[in-house]
Amino acid sequence: MQTKSDCEKYRGKLKNAAVLISPAAVIDLANLPRGFSRLTDEELKALEGMAVQPPRVSTPPVPNPEILKPEERIEFLKSEGVAVVLQCDGGTFGLVRGFSRPGSNNDKWSREKDLNSLPIIAVTPEHYNRMYRILKRDIPVKIEIEVQNRIGENVEKACNVIGEIPGTDLKNEVVMIGAHFDSWHESPGASDNASGCAVALEAARILKAIGVHPRRTIRIALWSGEEQGLHGSREYVLAHFGNPKTRTKPEYEKFSVYFNQDYGAGAYRGINLQGNEFVRRIFGAWMEPFRDLGMTTLTIQSVGSTDHIPFDNNGLPAFQFLQDRVGIGGHSNMDVFDTLVPEDLKKNAVIMAAFAYHAAMSDQRIPRKALK
Ligand SMILES: [Zn+2]
Q: pTM for the complete prediction?
């Protein structure tokens, strides 16, 4: 059901039905089993050789009132008396992914919208596709569903966790490390992003344990509300540093750099320079002692979708490490502790600690690229 006229085909026929909301899942057999892939020398070389990416010019899609918005579709199904919606997002066997909610990901979340929605249940692709195939032959499928649900009382508020090692002669300047503390509900979120929090905490512990006296303050941030749209980091950046397009705060000039980990739990293989050519030689020098840990590659690549972005968007240097792919996948029921590789996380903590230390000790703050 993609368009408003599609609704007419189903009107009056859906009472108490379970609706399969999307086509059959496409299973990528070539990539099974997934879960562990180190970046190869060729892949690292290609990343190193990347040219600066031209700024993306996106033309906004022409609005077509005929196309159903996700919440309009749910509204229609609800008015037709549908019992439950089944959804399959992703094509890995045994995996359910946690996007089963009304509205699109970019929509503003609201408690009312969630409470008023139909039950939407994520189903593994092998189960979803089996039902789909049987229905295609006009054979009825009977399913039994038991939903036990709980809705928290305090979900409107999210809190960042902040700690710091105070600086000395430049203590008003700040170097930040961090990851996000929130995760999806269908697993412990081991890689996304407990692993990042563990690495950032361990980096801070290492610095404390060896008794460093950094010149700049080293601040660790475990963000909340990342998965709903980088809310914790975005609000933090606005509150502390402001927006250079409207008004910056005094702390804006005191900020040096932020290092984030949120691309799974794999070992660092380098760092994405986020289009900032000024930091290539600086990071290259800091990285050199870790060559034998596999930390070798600087790429001009800009990456997104996580908490360094609110900094980057406001002209503050912020970076995400280049990582091996380890683990089965965030936002899924398989993002479990058993998929983590302790050795990778230990390496990452050492490297993050070293980068934070160098940034805190150097004579100058990290150079900034031109504002977009
Ligand atoms: Zn994440």
A: 0.86
